[in-house]
Amino acid sequence: MKAEVVITIHLYKERTMNTSRWIFSLMGMMGLAGLLAACGSDGAPSVSASGSGSGSGSGSASASGTITGFGSVVVNGKRFDTSSSSFTVDGQSGSQSDLKVGMIVTVNGSFNGTQRSAAAVLQKDAVEGLVQSVATDGLSLIVMGQTVLVDNTTLIDDNIPGRNLLNLVSGTDHVEVNGHIRPNGVIQATFIEKKLINVTPEVRGFVTDHNDGAKTFQIGSLTVNYATALISDMPAPNGSNWNGLSVEAKGAVFTATTTTLTGTKVEPENRGVSDQVDEFEVEGYVTQVRGAGDFFIGNTRVQTTGNTEFRGGTIDEIVVGAKLSAEGRWENGILIATKHVKFHEGVKLEGDIEMISSNSIRLTGLPGLTVTVNGQTELRDTNLGGLSSGDHVRLRGRVSGPNSVIATRVELRSGDNDVDLQGPVQSIAGNVIVILGVSVDTSTISQFESVSGSSMNRAGFLAEVKANALVKVKGDLNGSMVRWAEAELED
């Protein structure tokens, strides 16, 4: 059976912004996980294959993720040979040398045993246009009405002076941003570069406020006027019927004073896979939950099975805004997650609130570790004003400093003595490991688990654990101290 194969890839390189060098140095501690986004073909050629996949047989393969190396292309730990591949970069025919670390690309390919080959590589950005403003901390900016967030995984191209976003000139400079679209329309940037020539204003995202009478809709804070645009493969506009669709809009003129793009073309954002693909993998943010084990990552629908393996979380933790990857087979527009669903927010905390302010939380028993809550944090079953010292909470987030975390989700839980700490190991000295600035003495721990979940002894655990490894420890609160009881190596 013929199957069009698409792989979206983000390219990473170890770069840092001078203004936030201490943050970005944590990339080494966190490791570099593949960032996967929804796929799209844009007319890329297909590959015909068949088989069962997973290291045996042959077949079609589709994935979206991050290139962590060249010499061919490595994505999600898998190497794709590109010796016979075509390349499309920024809408133009190009070569692999035009790709840069951090870019999102789409790759069509196939597998034969453990060998994978790419037939076509297509780079796709989230927004390209005028910089309207840059935050004073250099960690966010507004590009053509789109809010762009920068974190310790974002790569800044060296054509931006000092790789420092504060050196961009608002109202003058244009940039291209690659990244994931979050459910609120915000772009989580993976790569940002300055555009010097050939700037075509374009944006990808979810439609809101469609008004066919006015021939306009919104993507983020951008108004797109499509009165004279070519409408390609879209439903016939009627009232507000485009709301919620994932689209790509291109234009000729962007008017900054009104944040309006005069559109030249509007078309669906197409993940670009055919009715059946033997291996399919996608990563991104959950944008919709239809029911238990039935949800969307970006614009890709995912369904779990009774055999789906959940890594780093449980099925009830699949909520809008969570960052996940899923792997399985693609059938008739749905990714059946026959292999796994993996949670990619590396930090997981649980415990009692010791101190809370308007924008930060500290947990009892985790001294020195500060959790920042911002406008992007999801608050479940509560609001920040409704939390107080002594409340038991569960948090997910990402590293922002040696002993600081930005919360992506805060959930109020029933009171108990459980304390969980999951994050990258910073150092190891004898029996003591340090996670997010918290020293954990493993000599009191009696239960150890490997990445596969099998039991191991303390010596085996300490021999296996390395700096930068993701580790979860569990314990009970005893006064203001934690008695650690379990330690697990996480994937």
Descriptive account of the structure:
The protein is globular, with a radius of gyration of 23 Å. 45% of the residues are buried. The strands form four sheets. Strands 2, 4, 5, 6, 7, 8, 9, 10, 24, 25, 26, 27, 28 and 29 form a 14-stranded mixed sheet that branches. Strands 11-12-13-16-15 form a five-stranded mixed β-barrel. It starts with a strand and ends with a strand. Among the domains are: 2-124 and 272-343, no CATH class; 347-489, Copper binding periplasmic protein CusF (OB fold (Dihydrolipoamide Acetyltransferase, E2P)), CATH 2.40.50.320. Residues 1-53 have low confidence and may be disordered. It is built from three helices and 42 strands. The longest helix has 7 residues, at 458-464. The chain is mainly β and 491 residues long. A hairpin with a 2-residue loop joins strand 12 (140-143) and strand 13 (146-149).
Give the helix tally: 3
Overall pLDDT:
84
Strand content: over 45%
- What is the chains' assembly state? single chain
Helix content percent band: under 10%
Q: Outline, from the CA principal axes?
A: globular
Distance N to C terminus: 34 Å
Judged by helices, strands and strand pairing, the structural class is: mainly beta
Rg value:
23 Å
DSSP summary, beta strand count: 42
Which runs of at least 5 residues are low in confidence (pLDDT < 50)?
1-53
Main beta sheet: 14 strands, mixed
